[in-house]
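Thread title: Can someone regenerate the structure for this chain?

I was given the following input by a collaborator and told the matching structure tokens would be attached. They weren't. Posting the sequence so someone can regenerate them.
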Amino acid sequence: MILEILTPETKIFSGEVYGVQLPGVDGLFEVLDQHAPLVSALGKGAIKVLKSKDSKDKAATYSITGGFVEVLNNKVSVLAEGADASI
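Best answer:
Regenerated them for you:
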């Protein structure tokens, strides 16, 4: 699936991924390939990008201050108020 992480200033990440873990306002949740359509608010926390199913070291983490996520047609769009690479 395709993941894009955007802020008002820049595009933080764009590419093909296996899955993504997101900080929802009520707790963490994960979106994997072929997920059902979804729109959700995001809270402050970490986004973990799972680049590969087979290797745990192929993950990247980004810290966000809140925002929204849309999942539609195997594309995940994260609109974050603020974000940076971390850990």
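The mean pLDDT is 91.
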